[in-house]
Every structure is written in structure tokens, then in C-alpha cells.
Amino acid sequence: MSQFRPSKRQTSILDMVEKYGFVATDAMVTEFDVTPQTIRRDLNELSQNGLLARFHGGAGQVKSAENPPYKARLQTGVEAKRKIAAVTAELIPNGASVFMSTGTTIETIAEALLNHENLHVLTNNLHVAQILSQNESFQILVSCGEVRHHDGGIVGSASEDYISTFRMDIGIVGISGIDEEGILLEYNPHEVKTARTILKNSQRTIMVADSHKFGRHAMNTVGHIRDVDVIVTDSELPPHFRKICENEQIEVCIADSAVTKTAKSANSP
């Protein structure tokens, strides 16, 4: 059976649902200038493939207690991930040692790093390792443990213990959500200890998160936004989160602007 690939309109629908949480059928009819029947067919197909949830009068994200399916995350926010990846890659000097966690944004960053030289990367993501293996100057270390078939993540206590034995120059982590108090949240409890270890064992930590993650809730607590040195995102933060970052002296890099905007200089102590 061939893998389902959303059409251009369906991909735009997924982006709208990712951005707003719920989108009414009438709004999609107006946005795409098509009939309600066409939108319903799109929503049925996307729902059948686990990419969104159908509701009366529209569509929304999957349950807040669950991460959207991996293939859905691959299809949504693609341009934002590329922008974030390009800026993140600029923050990584040649020869650095780097933790890289799981997630589709992290995989996009791996692609953006291929023109670097002599990186030393430890990851619990088989997809990241496979991408980076294209550069023969890189040293790539992969944690041990159980491999998740759906996304190539390596999880379990063996993986966590292995990662905890390293101290790296830079740690790059994704996150499922950041609540209004600045708490970092994850859908999957298996991601929590690894993320905490990376934040603790890195001299400099970079959190990558598109704008939709700010204000999104998930069940498991990783830490607080103050545990991060740099945030790379795709657009200006809402005022509330911008204030938190200023108070905590967190550097914020806006990937969508011509000039990187920061709340703290990268050279500040």
C-alpha cells in the first residue's frame, strides 16, 4: 500500500489546524474557495489517516494528551522548521560537540548541519544519525535502547543512562509545549528524562519551537524555560512569553526576521 500524501490544500488545512487548534468548515470553504463537500472529503481523508480529528462543524488537533502522529508532524509547519533549522545551524560552530534529541524539527536541523565540519554528535534519534552520516567528517554516537518504529526515537533507561555519561558543548532539544508560566511540557513521558539530561549536561542549550508551541499544553513536565539559554522560533513571541524570556535573560532568535532578534547577547556571561 502506498503511503498517503496530503494534497497542497490538505497540507494547508493541517497548517491551519496546527495554528488555531480548531478550524470551522465554513472558514475552510471561504479560505480555499471550494464547496463544503470538497472540504468534508478532505477532512475525512485526513482524519482516516490520523492527521487530524473531525468534529461537528470543523476539524481540530488530536487529543491534547497525545502527540500528533509522526507522519502528521512531517507534513505540518515545514517552512517554519526549515527557517528554524537554518538559524540553529548558524549557532553551531565547526568542531562542536552536540546533543540532538528526537523530533521532526531536530531532523530538519540535522539536514541544515551537513555543510559543517568535524561535529561530534550524540543522538537518540536514528533518523538524525542517518542524515548526519552523509558527512564523513562527523563523529556520530547513538544511544542504546529500544527503537520506536514510528519515528526512529531510541527510548528506555539504557538510552537515558548512556546520554547521562556525556558532557557536550551544545544541547539541542525540541519541546511539545510551553505553558503560560514558562513550564516546558512533553506529550511522551519517555522523552522527559532525556530532555532533562540534555539540558543539564550541556554548556549551552538551544530549544527549538515554532510559535504554535507557546501556550500549548501537554501532560509531562520537563523543566522551566529558564533552563534554556537560547530559543529559536519562527515568529515574534506573544508579549507574555517575550516578557518571561526578558526576565530570565534568555536569548530569542526569530527565524522569520532578516536580523536575528535577541533578549540577551550571545556573548553575555
Description:
The chain has 10 helices and 15 strands. With 269 residues, the chain is of the alpha/beta class. The chain folds into 2 domains: 8-65, Orthogonal Bundle (Arc Repressor Mutant, subunit A); 77-254, Rossmann fold (3-Layer(aba) Sandwich), CATH 3.40.50.1360. The strands form 4 sheets. A 7-stranded parallel sheet has the order 6-5-4-9-12-14-15, with helices on both faces. Helix 5 packs across helix 6. The longest helix has 13 residues, at 8-20. It is globular, with a radius of gyration of 19 Å. The N and C termini lie far apart (55 Å). Mean pLDDT is 86; it is low at 258-269.
Number of domains: 2
Name the CATH architecture of the largest domain.
3-Layer(aba) Sandwich
Q: Which regions have little confidence, pLDDT < 50, spanning 5+ residues?
A: 258-269
Strand order of the largest sheet: 6-5-4-9-12-14-15
